[in-house]
Amino acid sequence: MGTFHLDTTLSSLTSLKLVATDLDGTLLRSDKTISAQTGMVLRRLQATDVALVLISARPPRTLRQIARTYEIGGLALCCNGAILYDLDQDRSLGELALSPQQVQDLVSCLSTALPDLSFAAESGLSVTCEEAFYPFCAHDTAPFPRIVDSATILQAPQIKIMTHHASLTTEELYKAVLPLLDTREYSVTYSGAPFLEIARADVHKGEALATLCAQLEIPAHAVVAFGDMPNDLPLLQWAGLGVAVANAHPLVLQAADAITLSNDEDGVAHLLTSLLSHHYPLHIL
Fold first, then answer.
1. How far is CA 129 from CA 67, 132, 160, 171, in A?
2. Residue 1: which pLDDT band, with cuts at 50, 70 and 90?
3. Of 200, 222, 239, at which residue does a domain stop?
4. What is the domain count for the chain?
5. 267 with 52: CB under 8 angstroms?
6. What share of the chain is helix, strand, coil (3-state, %, to 5)?
7. Residue 221 has what pLDDT?
8. Whether residue 34 sits in one domain with residue 11
């Protein structure tokens, strides 16, 4: 771990073939926009043969809005890696969903052990939620979210289940939930939102990126990844160079290979400019 220095940072990369970045709190500023400087660097990156992969807890419908606004194409890993999405073709290329039985077991277990929980479910196409959960997803793309009872959530496969507790913080809830669930069936993560996200055990950003890179024949040592929250830890740990923005969670700052400037200071663009100047000196002067 340490602040960004080009010489030591480059020692982690034998080449640069792929850049993977989280969105909220990392590439996006606090106002959920991308600066003109970052936009320019991303366009320069996409003019090279380096692949750019957006990897986020966001579902496709909100991630693709950002991609369209800032003219970002290629592939994206949505819902913490549960959905591989083609931004150019605007379609899903594959997904990993919880079965209805897994959803039922999960909700039953947590509701029994922890009163005052509310739930929401992401199907990949839409989000449904209990009324108590609505304030935490009211910003979603219209016509979603739909308010339903818990029985409706239990009836179909779901990409992820989200849960909020009325009095526990997200970190407190994480510590309470983790011992209750079989980690062979479920993965539990959280980011900047006030709720936990629970998916299949094989769903996390590191595994998703590793699978995609294997298909693209890109080794980990040719990948740089950026993140800010605990759900980004598997991503940063897998990549040849894992970079935290300065505003990242303490666990992420501790685990990262390098630390760049904060998201509001264009930290991703700052480091990418240096990396691309080294690997592609004719593209960035």
1. 26, 8, 12, 21
2. very low
3. 200
4. 2
5. no
6. 40, 20, 35
7. 94
8. yes
Q: For the residues 21-40, what does the mean pLDDT come to?
A: 97
Tokens 């009095």 — which residue? 167
Q: E strand or H helix at 216, and its extent?
A: helix 205-216
> What is the spatial distance between Cα 1 and Cα 248, in angstroms, rounded to a whole number?
13
Phi, psi (degrees; rounded to nearest 5) at 196? -90, 155
Q: Are residues 181 and 144 in the same domain?
A: yes
Statement: residue 208 has pLDDT above 90 = yes
Q: How far apart are the first and last CA of the chain?
A: 28
Q: With respect to residue 22, please indicate whether it lies within any of the assigned structural domains.
A: yes
In the sheet that holds 117-122, the strands lie side by side as: 146-147, 127-129, 117-122, 160-165, 196-200, 186-189
Does the residue 1 lie in any domain? no
pLDDT digits over 141-160, tens only? 666 678 888 788 888 899 99
The token duo for 236 is 């940063």
Indicate whether 240 and 260 sit together in one domain: yes
Its domain, for residue 190, covers 100-200
- At residue 52's C-alpha, the angle toward residues 49 and 57, to 5°, is 165
pLDDT higher than threshold 60 for residue 282: no
Average pLDDT, the chain: 90
Task: Give phi and psi for 99, each to the nearest 5.
Answer: -75, 160
pLDDT tops 80 at residue 14: no
Same domain? 91 vs 210: yes
List the structure tokens of 272: 């990418």
Domain boundary at 172, 200, 228, which?
200
pLDDT recorded at residue 6: 45
